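JOB MANIFEST
job_type = single_chain_structure
chain_count = 1
residues = 81
[input]
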Amino acid sequence: MPRRAKGRISITLPIEPMLAKLADALPEGGSFLFEPKWDGFRAIVFRGASDVYIQSRDLKPLDRYFPELHETLLQQLPKTA
């Protein structure tokens, strides 16, 4: 069920992330970037004027797993990112 982040982030959370799709071969030409997928957490961070929200690709909040990141993300990310 969508929820607003208590007025601190001006978007309705959670937001569906764009997921990678399996391919048989790498694309030819163009200027593509590739990155290996390592096991572990993948997260999307939303930064509002006074708070941050960490979300999994499965639309679940991850804030409780990374409480030590909260203040750092508030300090390092621009407002509304």
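[summary]
The longest strand covers residues 9-13.
Strands lie at 3-5, 9-13, 43-47, 52-56.
exit_status = 0
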